[in-house]
Amino acid sequence: MNRRPIFITALTLAAGTIAFAAEAAPVKNIVIVHGALADGSGWRKVTEILQKRGFEVTVVQEPITSLDDDVAATKRILDLQDGPSLLVGHSYGGMVITQAGNDPAVAGLVYVAALQPDKGESVLSLSSSKPAGSMDIKETKDGKYLYLDPGAFPADFAADLPKDEADFLARSQVFASKQAFSAKITETAWRTKPSWSIVATQDRAINPDLERDMAKRAGSEVTEIKASHAVFASQPQKVADIIEKAAKKASE
């Protein structure tokens, strides 16, 4: 007569053990979302450092045609991972990981000189709240996309990189749709997931004080690095160290 309750209890305990094991699974997948006016190629050094440390690293090459498109591109990459993932976002990529990070497979978020929005905020609303240095942003002829003038790119985006590297970033940049910059966040992953933030103190694209304010609001663990907006390329070792630290803490 008592076999059924015991059997049910055993199943419940087993399910709880499996759930605990899933939560405690080590985070070995790093999914990087590049920012606007750039592409994923600048993350090569960080990727190689993390791979040598045993991580599986994938860089999302989102189209920046709309926030929804970029979130969908990120989720497609998350679906390919085996186990939990740490999402890393640079600049506009912070918008993307804030929305895409609600995926249950995401264990934590790392914002690298990034926007860290709350519900209802957009690139435009955040950027206008604390303007950074003047950037030579231009429109395409159809008026739908924005890009950073290649001649101004080194000083505005990557002042601490060798000129040839900054020039390559300028030539490989992905144009950003105005629609992506005006789109508002509807779900805020940092409210339920642990987060880390890198403030680039010499940033001319996003005001460093805005980066600090957003990180404080989110309760993120903050690291400040003296670097340009392209901190991921100019300080790859330091950025990789913080990502590794976040992955280990997200595994606890």
Automatic annotation (TrEMBL):
<dbReference type="InterPro" id="IPR000073">
    <property type="entry name" value="AB_hydrolase_1"/>
</dbReference>
<keyword id="KW-0732">Signal</keyword>
<dbReference type="InterPro" id="IPR029058">
    <property type="entry name" value="AB_hydrolase_fold"/>
</dbReference>
<feature type="domain" description="AB hydrolase-1">
    <location>
        <begin position="30"/>
        <end position="241"/>
    </location>
</feature>
<feature type="signal peptide">
    <location>
        <begin position="1"/>
        <end position="21"/>
    </location>
</feature>
<keyword id="KW-0378">Hydrolase</keyword>
<protein>
    <submittedName>
        <fullName>Alpha/beta hydrolase</fullName>
    </submittedName>
</protein>
<dbReference type="GO" id="GO:0016787">
    <property type="term" value="F:hydrolase activity"/>
</dbReference>
<dbReference type="InterPro" id="IPR052897">
    <property type="entry name" value="Sec-Metab_Biosynth_Hydrolase"/>
</dbReference>
<dbReference type="Pfam" id="PF12697">
    <property type="entry name" value="Abhydrolase_6"/>
</dbReference>
